[in-house]
Amino acid sequence: MTRTLPAAAEIQAALDEAWRIGRDRCGDGRVADYIPELARVDPSLFGIAIHTVDGQCFSAGDADYRFTLQSASKVFSLSAVVADSGETVFEHMSVEPSGDAFFSIVKLEEEKGQPRNPYINAGAILTSSHLPGETADQKIRHFRTFLASASGMDRDAFPVSEAVYRSEADTGHRNRALAEIMRHHKVIPDVEVAVETYFRQCAVTCTAESLARTSLYLANGGKDPLTGKRLITPATNHGVVALMATSGMYDEVGSHAIEVGLPSKSSVSGAVLAVAPGRLTIAGFGPALGPMGNSIGAMKALGALAERLELSVYR
Ligand code: GLN
Q1: What pLDDT does 3 receive?
Q2: Which CATH number fits domain 71-202: 3.30.1540.10, 1.10.8.60, 3.40.50.2000, 3.40.710.10?
Q3: Which pLDDT band holds residue 197 (cuts at 50, 70, 90)?
Q4: Which residue pairs from 23-28 have beta carbons closer than 8 angstroms and sit at least 24 positions apart in sequence?
Q5: What pLDDT does 2 receive?
Q6: Which of 67, 268, 294 for mutating ligand 1's site (highest number of atoms within 8 Å of CB)?
């Protein structure tokens, strides 16, 4: 599964160059403000980290700054759910791109409460409701345990930001509406448990370094190459990563595929997680977002890195 990696000095040089390119674009974006607590983050922060499947790690800039996972959490909740209960979550969800904003209600209403994919909010809320446990607390404990076992770290490495959680719980009316539509169609059993779990998983914190580390199993067929622990089956991993390629970057998935060419998942906190199968993972973090809600700096940096290190899966 391991593919050829560039030499360490070349990876670090490419990362430093990509970091400068990304950082220089941060002034063109704006932080998300629809979750009030996110509006307080400094838009000039910018960090990026790489982990390779043979255990090397590289970083530049604010790679140890702590931020909330937001939509990047959706990759891990899907992994945790399919690891626990197989494909049952897909009985009420398809795997197609939505073509609408990640919080859109339109298609969910038209399609009888069946989300288009697990990386839009509706699909992620459904997925959260499938996490093992009865209560939101139990489900979040399981989610953080999954992060811990994927990263080889402790659950304490992934604390929940109470401030961001509260901020989203107070203002997440659309997410509640999505959950109510799914409840109406009997797709989820309990709106409160589903949205509480979802809000908390979005508020789990990490750094670019820990995010790249935690994701390494995605670049290695579902098994952490450093601890040898299998998180998900190779077939499931293939699906989780393929969905990142088709639905991980909202309405910029096409241009991201052309400019970067790596399955990726972005978040409104400014993270972009990218997977180079068989080689490495990259986590960029820059809270200044472009018009589609993706980190401007992280996307530019990923483009530069993918080109210089010849990482695109479409080459
Ligand atoms: N918690 C955010 C929301 O539900 C996550 C969205 C995102 O990162 N795109 O709106």
Answers
A1: 72
A2: 3.40.710.10
A3: very high
A4: 23/61, 23/286, 23/297, 25/288, 25/296, 25/297, 25/300, 26/286, 26/288, 26/296, 26/297, 27/288, 28/288, 28/290, 28/296
A5: 55
A6: 268
